[in-house]
């Protein structure tokens, strides 16, 4: 069943079955061994009685992998290593959000890749939380705010996902939160209608000129009252 060379026995009268090399749970769930016994040494000229017995060995998954943050991308052919990208989000200055922050590519979420064990995961912020602006729910991974951010900039948080039964099985994800000035006004064009002139036969990407002034390229501009000096 593909497990040849993995198992062996030691001893003659009271043999012990032992493992010669590690099994991969992704490949092996069950191994069937046939144990052969005889009451005379091999090569004996006396009448020899023999017996066989079938031994079924059920292989259980060991807790070998640390949590994976999702979504993640496999980087090897046997799908044993999965790398996640940073989570990103943004908040407005001086604005307090009472709901979990919306992040890209999705909420903070990690799993135990030893999927038959599926150990419980807990979350915590272990770095980058200047002034304790953010909190993470230990059970859900939802990121929320404790207080407002007072100036534009970045928070680069490190969030840890650890197994409850073994905190040494953990992974760290980066969460990038951009703080921006709140936008109160939509942008608008400075003119409702623009008129331009273009000549027949011009090459692609040639300028369109102001109607009535073929020396000035037509400029279409928009402004935003949130940034009056820009």
Automatic annotation (TrEMBL):
GO BP, sorted A to Z: adherens junction organization; calcium-dependent cell-cell adhesion via plasma membrane cell adhesion molecules; cell migration; cell morphogenesis; cell-cell adhesion mediated by cadherin; cell-cell junction assembly; homophilic cell adhesion via plasma membrane adhesion molecules
Predominant location: membrane
Subcellular location(s) per record: Membrane
InterPro entries reported for this sequence: Cadherin, Cadherin-like_dom, Cadherin-like_sf
Record keywords: Calcium, Membrane, Repeat
Span of domain Cadherin: 4-69, 83-189
Listed CDD domains: Cadherin_repeat
Top-level lineage group: Eukaryota
Keyword Ligase: no
GO CC annotation terms, alphabetical: adherens junction; catenin complex
GO terms for MF: beta-catenin binding; cadherin binding; calcium ion binding
KW Membrane (keyword) present: yes
Name of the featured protein: CDHR5 protein
Organism whose genome encodes this protein: Pandion haliaetus (Osprey)
């Amino acid at each position: 069943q593909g497990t040849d060379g993995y198992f062996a026995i030691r001893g003659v009268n009271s043999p012990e079955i032992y493992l010669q090399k590690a099994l991969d749970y992704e490949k092996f769930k069950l191994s069937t061994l046939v144990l052969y016994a005889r009451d005379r040494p091999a090569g004996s000229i006396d009448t020899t009685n023999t017996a066989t017995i079938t031994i079924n060995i059920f292989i259980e998954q060991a807790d070998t992998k640390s949590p994976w943050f999702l979504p993640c991308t496999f980087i090897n052919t046997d799908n044993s290593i999965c790398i996640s990208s940073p989570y990103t989000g943004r908040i407005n200055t001086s604005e307090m959000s009472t709901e979990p922050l919306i992040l890209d590519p999705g909420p903070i979420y990690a799993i135990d890749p030893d999927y038959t064990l599926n150990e419980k995961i807990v979350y915590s912020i272990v770095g980058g939380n200047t002034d304790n602006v953010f909190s993470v729910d230990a059970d859900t991974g939802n990121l929320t705010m404790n207080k407002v951010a007072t100036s534009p900039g970045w928070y680069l948080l490190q969030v840890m996902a650890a197994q409850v039964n073994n905190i040494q099985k953990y992974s760290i994800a980066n969460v990038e939160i951009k703080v921006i000035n709140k936008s109160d006004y939509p942008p608008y064009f400075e003119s409702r209608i623009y008129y331009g002139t273009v000549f027949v036969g011009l090459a692609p990407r040639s300028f369109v000129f102001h109607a009535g002034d073929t020396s000035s390229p037509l400029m279409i501009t928009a402004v935003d009252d949130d940034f009056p000096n820009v």
